[in-house]
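Section 4.2 – Deliverable D4.2 (structural model, holo form)

The reporting period included a commitment to supply a predicted holo structure for the target in complex with guanosine-5'-triphosphate. Inputs used:
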Amino acid sequence: MASSDSDSDSEAPPMLVPLSRSAIPVTLLTGCLGAGKTTLLSHLIKNAPPGYRIAVLVNELGASEAIEAEFYVGHASRRNEGDDGSGRVAGGDAMVPMPQSVMRARGGADGTNAASASSLKSSTPDWVELPNGCLCCTAKSEYVQLLENIVRTQPGKYHHVVVETTGVADPGPAIEALWTDEGMEACVFLAGVVTVVDAVHLLGQYREKRQNLNRKRAGASAEADEPAREAVLQVAFADHVIVNKCETAGDASTAEAEEAVRRINSAATLERADRCVVDVKRLLELRALDGDGAARAAASASSSSSAPGADESPSSSAHFGGVNTVAVDVSGVRTESAVRAWAESLLWGEQVGCEIYRLKAVFAICADADGVSSSPPRRVMLQAVGQLYELTDGGLWPDANLSASDYRSRVVAIGRRVRRTKLLEGLL
Ligand SMILES: Nc1nc2c(ncn2[C@@H]2O[C@H](COP(=O)(O)OP(=O)(O)OP(=O)(O)O)[C@@H](O)[C@H]2O)c(=O)[nH]1
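Output (structure tokens):
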């Protein structure tokens, strides 16, 4: 319905309708303190295609009880106007994030900050109010609403949203919130999880974890190993990992860091970088959470994670709190009901003995949930994040002339204490 709030509105030119009304991708950016997340944001914003506007939401857990929330808005087009959008970003060792366009608020006790919000609103149209609260544990609904605000109140303004989680966050709840909120599906979708790791310090963080575990066994506090635990989780939940600071780390340490990433999560794509100079197009076009993303990840999980016995090797995951990747291939066709029963038992069962963070699979399905059979079978992709899962129909299996036993389904699981035998239960 047309709005006629004021005379000025009626005289204004009609609002431009975005060329594409499709949902806006949201990329979740994680990584340990100092790994290079801000450096990556700066690189993304400066090198996005002209006119491609990225809203960046930063949520940090401060040293005190107070939560600091910031909202940056990147203007990719400024680089074409002789201004990189920051005034201070380019050059030098100290990378400073988009300071000209930073808006900051500290929420009040009631979760709002009306006074500063209104003064900021008057000075900039880019203000979005962020209630107080931690993105990853208490502010799920506010976080979702904020993203809705960014997209719905300024239609057509942004082409992409990047949410940077705090440097010590477990990204699981944030991913689940984004992936599941039905109200958001109309205007935004989770495009993928990008994790920046520091090639110089990654292995040190994991070694620290082992030391902390030893200390814990000797009676130290349970919180002692939290940062390292989160470092492992950030890699485990990733769809794309940027191994940063490679030049400083040198070839040997970089290779070791890559090997560590692969052992935790061999389904994620991996990219080396210095100062997070990465392929911007690849990052902006990441679509990891759809059916095709599941198929790509399942196909590319390294063969080492599918080797029988690899999951039982003490060295495979001991350094990483038992977090590993296991890939299995199974032949034959299955019904959708059987696949759902298998997934629910694995993800929801109380006696499973493992904890699944991400699950990606491609199945040959001979009958849908209503029992309607298909010959050739259908290609159905499965994605799971934590306890949530989704099946996506990929159409008829491309090769129609196989005998039933020649269809090969593939499952890749990333989690804690994942075992081949456990994945295969209910599939064979
Ligand atoms: N030597 C080197 N330093 C880098 C590289 N990338 C980033 N840095 C520096 O590392 C420091 C941390 O980088 P940031 O981008 O602020 O890291 P961050 O992940 O945003 O850090 P937090 O916000 O504290 O979590 C900065 O001083 C960067 O300039 C790199 O490839 N090599």
